[in-house]
Structures are given as C-alpha cells and as structure tokens.
Amino acid sequence: MTTALAMLLAIAIDACFGEPRRVHPLVAFGRLAGWTERRLYLDRRRAGVLAWSLAVVPLVAIAWFLVHALALVSSWTASAISSVTLYLTIGLRSLGEHASSVAGALDADDLDAARNAVAQLVSRDTALLDGERVAAAATESVLENGNDAVFGALFWFAVLGAPGAVLYRLANTLDAMWGYRTLRYERFGWAAARIDDVLNYVPARLTALTYALLGDRRRALRCWRLQASQWDSPNAGPVMAAGAGALGVRLGGSAPYHGVCKERPILGEGVGASASSITRALHLVRSGTALWLLLFALGAILVAIARCGGGHA
Fold first, then answer.
1. Is residue 28 pLDDT above 90, yes or no?
2. What is the domain partition of the chain in residue ranges?
3. Rounded to an integer, what distance in angstroms lies between the CA atom of residue 225 and that of residue 42?
4. Which of 75, 77, 176, 310 is the most exposed place for a label (fewest CB within 10 A)?
C-alpha cells in the first residue's frame, strides 16, 4: 500500500510544482556525466562500461542506503523520501507544458513559435519543419516520453523502489547522451544504449499496451505488430507505433537531423499530425498514468486483503 501511496504523492507533487526550476538533479547528473566522459573517454566498450558504472552505481547505492536507513527510523519517513525521489525522476507536467506550447502555437498559426517550442522536445532541425512535421515531432515526443519520463520510472519504482526509479532515469539520461551510433559513441556509448534497452524492454511494452487500451485498440495493436520492428529502437518502436495507431495518426517519415534528411518508417495510420494529435497524445499519457495508479492501488488493496485473510486463518 505504501508503494501505491508514494506513487500517488509523487504524481501529485509533480502536478503541483512541476520540475525544480533552479537546479534539477538530472541536470546536475548530466554535468557529472559530461565530466566523467571528458576524463574517461576512449573509443572502447570497456571505457564506456567504466564511465557508466562510475556515474550511476554510486548514486543508486546512495538512494538505496538513504531509503533503508530511514526505514529503520520510520516507514512513513522512508515513504516520503521515496515519493520525493520518484517525483524527481518523472516529468509529466513538464512534458505537458512543452507539448502544449507547440499545440498552442500551431493553433495560433505561428509556425516560428511552434518550431521554437518543439526544439525543446526534439533534436532534429526544427527550422526546416512545416506545420505538420512540427506537430508530428511533438506527438512522437509525447508518446515516447510518456514511457521514458513517466511509465518507465513508475514501473521500476514498483519493482525496486526509489533506487529502481533512480537507476532507470539515470540510465535513460546516459542513453540520451551517449547512446548514439556515431563515430564517437559507437563503442563508448554501447553500454549506455544496451542497458537502457534492457531496462526499457518491459515498461515500453506495457506503455504500448496502455496506449492501445485507451485508444483505438485494434488499430494500435495492428500498427504495433506490423510497424514496430521497422523502427531503429527496439523499445521506441512498440511505444510509438501503438501510440500512433491508438490516435489514428501518421507519424515517422523523413526528418532532418544535422543538415541531413533521415528517412524513417511510417508509424500509425490515418490523418496527418496536427495540434489536435499533440493534445490527444497528452491526454493518452495522462489517462494512462491515472490507469496505472488505479491498478497499483487495487493491487495493493488485494495484497492487503490477502494478508489479512491469511492472518485470520
């Protein structure tokens, strides 16, 4: 029951305050990771493994020690710290704020503002995007970050508590920094990419299933089955294909990165992306979050009932 309550409190804190405005721990971690890379970089897999371990393992160990040490004093204090830790690993409100800025600019026919807003969400060359591609980029980001910034952290919090959420979010951050198939990171970033793939395997498929259940189920499952394997990422593919199918929108296709147009598979089916698809994707993520919290709460209640019944027996 305390796990479900901690999740609910973390989501409530995020809804009220959003991400920390001054110093976000993940920003500080990004600086630490950059410092580690500058000192340990070699074009070798083992260098990447060492850098990943030195950046992540001590912080996860600190989270584990803090929670378990506080549990010896008070279980409620430990739960409160766990809630705050989970809050710092999710970004539901921030995702909504950034995506809503893009949708609002598109609704106002202000393409320059929409391009500037979507640049906060994606790494592609936004100055070259037309309105539909801006909307597609934002919709893709909402669907993918629903997993990376919300559902993945909730899953690992349920499995391993606060240390699990910290492990997941730090691994996800290093994948975003080092997990590229470029000359610099092909070997050094190998560990970051593979670890993130492993940690995301189950959450990504649960996220895809959530999108399917809350949207056009048949279309979502069909797109997941037929299109997901065509995507570069083994985890983003199911999430985005199912999400696009659930929304009845076409995503993917060509996108400019660093001056080069990259041809990507089409995901989903139906109409082209628009401000409406961004808004509906946000609704899908928020509804999915509510569903997960409800299921975790019901699960905790059933476990508590079973334990009481066993005690009376």
1. yes
2. 2-312
3. 39
4. 310
Record the pTM: 0.94
DSSP 8-state code for residue 108 = T
The label of the residue with tokens 């240390």 reads 163
DSSP, collapsed to helix, strand or coil, labels residue 272 as: strand
User: CB–CB of 168/145 below 8 Å?
Assistant: no
pLDDT tier, 311 (very low <50, low <70, confident <90, very high otherwise): low
* Alpha carbons 276 and 96: distance in angstroms, whole number: 14
Residue type, 48: G
Please report, for residues 92, 115, 131, 274, the alpha-carbon distance to residue 106 in angstroms, rounded to integers and kept in the order given. 21, 9, 7, 8
What one-character-per-residue DSSP string does 216-269 give?
-HHHHHHHHHHHGGGSSSTTHHHHHHHHHHHHTEEEES-EEETTEEEP--EEE-
Dist. CA 111–CA 127, nearest whole Å? 10
Q: Hey, what are 133's tokens?
A: 């591609």
Please name the residues in contact with 226: beta carbons below 8 A apart, sequence gap of 6 or more. 241
- Which parts of the chain fold into alpha helices (H)? 2-17, 25-40, 45-73, 75-89, 92-107, 111-118, 131-146, 152-160, 162-178, 185-188, 190-214, 217-227, 236-247, 275-312
* Mean pLDDT rounded to a whole number for the chain: 93
Which burial class, exposed, middle or buried, applies to 8 when counting CB atoms under 10 A from its CB (0-12, 13-18, 19+)?
middle
- Which residue carries 């649960």 as its tokens? 206
Q: At what angle do helices 92-107 and 131-146 cross, to 10 degrees?
A: 170
